[in-house]
Write the C-alpha cells for this entry.
Amino acid sequence: MKLNVYNSSGSKTDKSVTLSKAVFGIEPNDHAIYLDVKRYRAAQRQGTHDTLHRGLVSGSTRKIKKQKGTGTARAGSIKNPLFRGGGTTFGPEPRDYTQKLNHKVKQLARRSALSYKAKEKAIKVVDGMQMDAPKTQTFMGMMKGLEVADQKTLVVLSSPNNAVYLSSRNSSKHRVMVASDLSTYDILNCNTLILVDDAHKVIEGLLK
C-alpha cells in the first residue's frame, strides 16, 4: 500500500512510502482484536476496591446477649453481617484483573487493527515534527494543516520526542506515543493514525 508523505504544515511532498502488506494489508481477525482489547482494558483496572468483612470491622467480641432462653436466634458478635454496622458479606476485595494472552495473538490483533485503518484510508505519514520547545499552539497548527484538528488522532513517533508529547497534553482529541508502545486499543480508539518519520518501519519491525 502506497501513501503520500506530508510535511508538518500539511503540504504534500514529492515523497511516498510503501506500507508492508504483512502488517497493514492482512485479512483482519475480529476475535483476536476482541481478546486483545479486553486484555488491555482489564489491565487498566486498579483492582483496589475493598469492603470490611466481619474480621475487619471494629467492635467488641463480647456476647451481646445470653445465648439461650431468649426465644430468638443466638447472636455471638456485634460484628455479625446481619446487624447494622456489621461486616459486609461476600464484598469485593483487592484483586489483579490482568489477563494473559499469547504474544502471537496480540501481534495478530495489532496487525488486524492497522489493516482496518489502512482499508479506511485513516493513516497519514508525516516526514517529521520538529519543535524546539513545547508549544500547544504550534502542535495544533500542525494538526490544522493536516486537516485533522477536529478529529480524534493518534500521533505515532519513531522515537521519543518530549517537546511534541508535552505540546499535545492540553488537547483532549490528540494523543502522542512511541511506535514501540502502540496497542490494539490505541489504534482503534482514534479516527486518524499519523505516522511520523520512520514510525511505520518500527511498527513493521515489531509485527512482521
Summary: The helical segments are 21-24, 30-43, 103-119, 136-145, 162-168, 184-188, 199-207. Residues 46-96 form one domain.
